[in-house]
């Protein structure tokens, strides 16, 4: 839609012809726009829909605007026809004709009848049911009404084109997910994911109804945009439910994975718990041996295997037999961690219980290592070293063994051997010395 030239004094023939040409082109453009609006899919949908909320309010105003637009256009058409008739009376228009044409083309010569305005008096901004316009102001008014009506129609059509189809696709995916969830025991009231599916179903159903009846409630205009339909559909609720459904799908995938490898995981669990039990049994046996062979030491008590894990393992096997995969999944994850912790605890108990035996073995090894070193240097027959060695060996190979006293005996043997081994060097430097001390 365009705008005619500015008003002025009485127009000459050329000015009239140019103005009529502009008006003709403008008339054609306006008619094309109005017909396009009339045939717009969004307008047809709005006419046939049961609207609610803000859309119903705005469509009532838009319908009145469109009706008024056609009334304005008819008045515009009549004015243009009248001008053309005056101009076509004679080839060379008279002064009176030119004055009439000037008034018609530039003055407020277009009157819209009350019957045309009766349906939308408030659109005029006055209490009158008729009003006069110049062709320029009439075009401006039509442009305003057309822009606001088209904006409303395009916005509603954009929401209807975008959201319902996406909601339907998500609803179809939701139904497939519900069937899969039901097959693995994920049901409302029995599993949180089942409750989520019910909530998503209700939300999508309600969302679709609202989008169909009140599309403008889900339209976000672009700030500062003057173009008709400037904005985007508000997909906040849709996006939130789509993410929620994706979370449910992941949960069901986890349950499906449990169904596929449940038996293997149960076998591994039994193996881990069995190893933990054997390790604890070994620790209890070792504790009896330590108490019999090692004196004056604290030996930690070894607890028995926790019966709760065996009970939970039996419950997990029961879930598997009855295909209660949604319950089996979290239980297996918990049991696997607890079983590993139990095996670690059993190994730590065995290590703590056998620590005194390890200390005794270390002392025995150190004693024999020093004896071998002394023998390599030809001092194995030294009576003092033999005495110290025998004393340490008796302590280490007798039961119960006092580790503290035995450790001191081994240390004394080491010191004696070290002194004896250093004696030749001392003799070379300053004569023979006896560093063995009192026996």
In a nutshell, what does this entry contain?
The protein is mainly alpha-helical and 439 residues long. The chain has 13 helices and 6 strands.
In words, what does this structure look like?
The structure is a single chain. The strands form three sheets. This protein has a two-stranded antiparallel ribbon. Strands 3-4 form a two-stranded antiparallel sheet. Helix 6 (135-183) runs parallel beside helix 8. It is rod-shaped, with a radius of gyration of 51 Å. It has four domains: 13-154; 155-257, no CATH class; 259-353; 357-430. The N and C termini lie far apart (125 Å). It is built from 13 helices and six strands. It is mainly alpha-helical and 439 residues long. 74% of the residues lie in helices and 4% in strands. It has helices at residues 13-39, 41-48, 53-87, 95-106, 114-117, 135-183, 192-213, 236-293, 307-321, 325-353, 355-376, 383-396, 403-430; strands at 110-112, 131-133, 219-221, 231-233, 294-295, 401-402.
Question: What characteristics describe this protein?
Answer:
439 residues, mainly alpha, two-stranded antiparallel sheet, two-stranded antiparallel ribbon, 6 strands, 74% helix, 4% strand, rod-shaped, disordered N terminus, coiled coil
